[in-house]
Design brief:
Helix content is 7%, strand content 25%. It is mostly beta strands and 982 residues long. The strands form ten sheets. It has a 36-stranded mixed β-sheet that branches. It has a seven-stranded parallel β-sheet with strand order 53-55-61-63-65-67-68, with no helix packed on it. The relative contact order is 0.05. Residues 1-44 and 970-982 have low confidence and may be disordered.
Amino acid sequence: MAISHSSHRQHQLLLLFFLVHLIIPIQVSYSHNTNTNQTATPATTIPCRPDEASALLRLGHSFSSTNDSSCTLASWRAGTDCCGWEGVACTDGRVTTLDLGGCGLESAGFHPALFNLTSLRYLDLSENSFNESELPAVGFERLTELTHLNLSYSDFIGTIPDGIRRLNKLVSLDFSNWIYLVEGDNDYFLPLGEGRWPVVEPDIGSLVANLTNLKVLYLDTVDLSGNGAAWCSAFANSTPQLQVLSLRNTNLNAPICGSLSLIQSLTKVNLKYNKVHGQIPESFADLPSLSVLRLAYNLLEGPFPMRIFQNKNLTAVDISYNFKVSGFLPNFSSDSIMTELLCSNTNFSGPILRSISNLKSLKSLGIASTNYHQELPFSIGELRSLTTLQVSGAGIVGEMPSWVANLTDLENLQFSNCGISGQVPSFIGNLKKLSTLKFYACNFSGQVPPQMFNLTNLEIINFHSNSFIGTIELSSFFKLPNLYRLNLSNNKLSVVEGKYNSSWESIDNFDTLCLASCNISKLPDILRYMHSVEVLDLSNNRIHGTVPQWAWDNWIDLLILMNISHNQFSSSIGYGSVISANMFIIDISYNLFEGPIPIPGPQTQLFDCSNNRFSSIPFNFGSQLDSISLLMASENKLSGEIPPSLCEATGLKLLDLSNNGLHGSIPFCLMEDLSGLNVLNLRGNQLHGRLPNSLNQDCAFGALDFSDNWIEGQLPRSLVACQDLEVFDIGNNLIDDTFPCWMSKLPKLQVLVLKSNKFAGNVGPSIFGDKNGCEFVKLRIFDLSSNTFSGLLQNNWFRTMKSMMTKVVNETLVMENQYDLLGQTYQFTTAITYKGSDVTFSKILRTIVVIDVSDNALYGAIPQSIGDLILLSAVNMSHNSLTGLIPSQLGMLHQLESLDLSSNYLSGEIPQALASLDFLSMLNLSYNKLEGRIPESPHFLTFSNLSFLGNIGLCGLEVSKACNMSPDMALHQSNKLLPITG
C-alpha cells in the first residue's frame, strides 16, 4: 500500500495493495527427520540418573497439553527409567537427547530445571508455545555438550542469551520464528511491520564468534537490523564449516559481502524477505557445493553473475522480486539438475532460448523479459513436470500460448506485469490441478473465463488491473469449494452480489476479498456470513450510506487490513470507539464520515482517515496508538487543540493533520520527543505560538510543513540537527527573523519556502562575512516572496546553487518518503506562485526548479550568474526595486517556463536572447523602464500586451506601437520592395 495526496487516479493506484496474512512455518529437517531414532530406548542397561529424572519431571510439570498437542508426556512417570520416556534418549545413564519438537505443548516459561541436564547434546523444543516469555538470560552456558539446539516456533521473545555464545560444540542452531507477511497487488511480500521480530540479535558477530563448528543456522525472523553491514563478515570470519545459512525476514538492510564465499562449505543460502541491497557477489559462483540460492524479495540490483548457472550442483535459484537485478537466461545443458528457477519480476531480458527445455527436472519456472519483445518459446511447453509457471515483464507479448494447455501438472500459473493481451483461452478449464491462478497487471480483456469455475482445486484467484469486462456475480466464486482469496480489482467489471447459499464450503474459509473499482453501489450483504476475512478492499466504488453495525462487529476482531476509501460512506463511527482490535492497516479516507475520529486498535500501523468530515480528535487518542507508524487525518473539519497524547505514539514516522481548523500551539513534544518522526505536516490550520527550539541531535525529520498558520517568533536554530531535512515550508505565518544562512548546514535541503512572513535584512551571506557559510547546494525550490528582505542579490552566491545547474543521475522523479511498511510512499507537497498563479503541488517533481524573491525591497542589478542555473523552470523577481539591464544570460535558461520581472526599475532593451526560450509560456516584464524593440519571433508574438504594460519606451506588434526604423533597416525594407528585373 502506498500513500499519496496527488491525483485521484494516482492515489488509487498507490493505495491498492491487498494484503494476505501468511504464517509460514519452516520444517527443519535435521530435527524432525531424526526424531524416531533419537527417541528409541538406547541399548544400555544403565538407568537414568535420579537427579536428571527429577529435573525432567519438574520440566514436564511446567508443560500442559491442548487439544492440538501431539505429545502427552504420559510416559514421564516417577519411579520409571527416564531413558525410556517419550522424547528422551540417554548414553551411560545420562540424558543426551531431549526431543519435544512439534509436540504442541504449552508452558508459561522456560523452566530452569532443564539446565541441570548438562550432558545434553541434542535439544529440540520447537513448535511448542512458551507464551511470549523471555528467553532465559542465564543457564545455557551450562549445556556445554550441546551440538544441536532448536528453539524455533516456540513463541519466545527477547535477546538470544549470552550463554549460547559459549556452546562451541554446536553444529546446528535454530531460532526461527513465524513469518508474518503481507502480499501486495504485485505479490511483493514484506514483513507486516514493526514489532513482528520477537527475538533480537544486535551483535551477530559476537553470537557466532566461538561457534566454529556450526554447520546449520536458521535465524528466520530474528531481528538482525542492528548489525548493519557487519552481519556478512561475521559469518565469513567465524563459521568456516557452515553449510546452511537461513536468514529469512531478519530485517537486514545491508549488502552481501563478497567474503561470504570464503565459506567454501556453503550449500544453501536463504536471505528472502529482507532489504538486502547492492549487487549479488560474483564470488557466489566460486562456491563449489552451492545447491540452493534464495535471494527473493529484496532490493538487490545490478547484473546477476551468470557463472552461477554453471555450477553443476545447483538445484534451486530464486532471485524473483528484485526489480533492479538484470541478466538473461543462459543456454542450459541437458545434464542440469535444477528443480527451481525463479527470475520473475526482475529486470531480466534478452531471448528465452529453446534450450530451456533441457531442464527436465524443473518443477518451478519463473521468467522475465523487460525490454526484449518476444513471444514465449514453445519449448517451455515440453517441461511437462512443471508445477509452477510465472511469467512477467513488458517484453513478453502476444496472446497466452496454446502450449500452456500441455502443462497438466500445473498447480500455480501466473502472468503478471506483462504485455500478454487478448482473452484468457478456454483451455484454462482443463488444468485441473490448478490451485493458484494469477493474471494481473497485463492486458487481458474480454469476459472472466467461465471455464475457470470448473477448477475445483482453485484456492487463489488474482485478476486485478486488466481490462476484463462485463457483469459478474460474486456468489459464483463462492461455489468453488477451496477458494479463499479473490482479487478482481481495477478492471472494467461490474460486480453484483448474487444469492447467498448456506451450503457453500468456501464462505467460512475466505481470508481475502479485493473488489476495488468494481462499480459496486451497496456493501455486499454476503460479508455478513464471512467470518474469516482478514483482508478487505472495497475502495474506489460507489458505496454509500452508513456502515451497518453487523459489519463493524464482524470486522473488529477479524480484519488485519480494511480499505474502504474513495466511497460515500457517511455518519459517525461512535465517540471514542476503537475501530479495530487487530487491524494493521485501516484506510477510510475520501468518504463522508463525521464526528470524532475513531481510535484505531493497538496493532494498527497505518491509519488514513483523511478527506472526510471528522470534527475532533479524542483527547486520549495518542495513548491508544501502541504500534502506529503512519497517521493521516488531513482535509477534515478538525477543531480544538492537537492532543498532547499524540506524543505517546512513540513509533510515529508520519503525522499529517494538514488543512483542518486546529488551533492552539504545537505541542513541543511532537518535535522534541518523537525521535522517529520524519514527516510532520500541519499546513493550513490556525496554530499559533512559537516553534520549539530544543530539537534532539538524532532528529529524523525529512519534511516539515507549518505553512498557512499564525506561528510567530524566530526559526529554531536547533533545526540544524535535522540532517535529513529535505523540505521546510513555513510560508504564510508571522515569523520575524533574518535570512537563515545557518540552514545551509542542512546537506539535503531542497525546498525552502519562507514566503509571506516578516523576514527582513539582506538575502544570502553578509557582504562582509564568510562567503562560504551560506551555500544551499541542494536547493530546487527557493521562495522568499512577500517579506521585507532588502539589499543586493549577490552574483557569486547564485553560483553556489549547484542543484539548479546539474541533474542528479538516478534520482527519483517525485520527492517522496518511502516506508518499510508495505513499501508505502508519502509524496511531499508545497504551495508556491507558479506561472502567475498560486499553485499547490500535491507532488513535487524534481524538474520543478524555482526562485521566487518577489514582493520584497531588493535593489541593484539582477545577477548575471542566474544564467548558470540552467535547470530553472520559474523565476519571479517582481515587485522589488531592481535596476539595470535584463541580463542576456537569461537566454541560457532553456527549461524556463515562467519569468516575472514586473514592477521594478529595469531599463534598456529586452534581450533578443529571450526569444529563444521555447518553453516560456508566462512572461511579465510590465511596469519597468524598458525601451526599444520587443524581440521579434513567432514565440514572442504569443505574449499579449499585458506582458509589457507600463513600459512606454517599448515598441512592437505586442504593444500596438510601431518602431521607428533605423537608416539601415529602412534601406533593407526598401530593397525588399524593389521590382525584380532582367
